[in-house]
Amino acid sequence: MALFGLFSKEKKKKLDEGLEKSKTSFLSKLTRTVVGKSKVDAEVLDDLEEVLISSDVGVNTTLKIIERIEERVAKDKYVSTDELNGILKAEIASLLKENTTGVTDNFEFPKHPDNAPHVIMVVGVNGVGKTTTIGKLANQFKNQGKKVVLGAADTFRAAAVDQLIIWSERVGVPIVQQGMNADPASVAYDTLQSAKAQGADVAIIDTAGRLHNKVNLMNELSKIKRVMDKVIPGAPHEILLVLDGSTGQNAYEQAKQFALATDINALAVTKLDGTAKGGVVIGISDQMQIPVKYIGVGEGIDDLQVFNKQAFVDSFFGE
């Protein structure tokens, strides 16, 4: 099995451990589907549909996968149940690879004019692991020798600002913050000015995680984006939505809501190690047509991984 980029044996081992619950649940359901059957027929496909939906792959993505397998069965006339795992794995891998525009297999990002910092605005509801993801991202970038500045623009919760300060100290990177109830756009503005002045490579801005009023959220995020663009034309370069994988299809619903509120162009799916709902990554990647860039497979500071599609599918199928 060839893994691309910098994907090491250690990372693969961690990925295997992180997806253990999802893999065990999925494969046991799959095994029950084909027991006592020798060929893939309509009944097996019906059962397979149920397996995929109950594994949080999502209805629309499941139907797409089933349709592809039906075409394969119709073309080959006879497909044994022994071949089903391989076919299913190939179709899921193919589906994931169709949505990879602009995604690399490491923590690199493009150079910007005048060596401007790469600006990442992070969005997501409270409790999904947003601030923790920012801290882990900052750690990964710093380990690559990049200069990182954090911005605490989630000013509606004191805990969010405090948590980001703790992460900045833990990782050893500077933070710009104005405390609770400060204007988020003002914090974002100061962060980018500071990042430029320090010759930083990347600035990561935390934002408030509220979905109860989409109009307010949309206005707030639009204002933050406009202010950033004044400091660094084209910023933010990346709007990263953080989703909690353990919430299954609810994560997909959140993704849809945030996509209506702002122009998300990257996703991070966290907490996959504590759930059997890892299939949600497949559905979100397919349905949102926004690349899953990072996945969280453990609580450790190094347990945020760049989403390696082939490695993910291999681990999901226990290989």
From TrEMBL:
CDD domains: FtsY. NCBIfam families: ftsY (TIGR00064). It comes from the Bacteria. One of its GO terms (molecular function) is signal recognition particle binding. Its main location: membrane. The keyword Hydrolase applies. Residues 291-304 form the SRP54-type proteins GTP-binding domain. It is a peripheral membrane protein. It catalyses: GTP + H2O = GDP + phosphate + H(+). Its EC number is 3.6.5.4. GTP binds at residues 124-131, 206-210, 270-273. It is found in: Cell membrane; Cytoplasm. Keywords: Cell membrane, Cytoplasm, GTP-binding, Hydrolase, Membrane, Nucleotide-binding, Receptor. Part of the signal recognition particle protein translocation system, which is composed of SRP and FtsY. Gene3D superfamilies: P-loop containing nucleotide triphosphate hydrolases, Signal recognition particle SRP54, nucleotide-binding domain. One of its GO terms (cellular component) is cytoplasm. Belongs to the GTP-binding SRP family. FtsY subfamily. It holds the Pfam family SRP54. This is Signal recognition particle receptor FtsY. One of its GO terms (biological process) is SRP-dependent cotranslational protein targeting to membrane. Involved in targeting and insertion of nascent membrane proteins into the cytoplasmic membrane. Acts as a receptor for the complex formed by the signal recognition particle (SRP) and the ribosome-nascent chain (RNC).
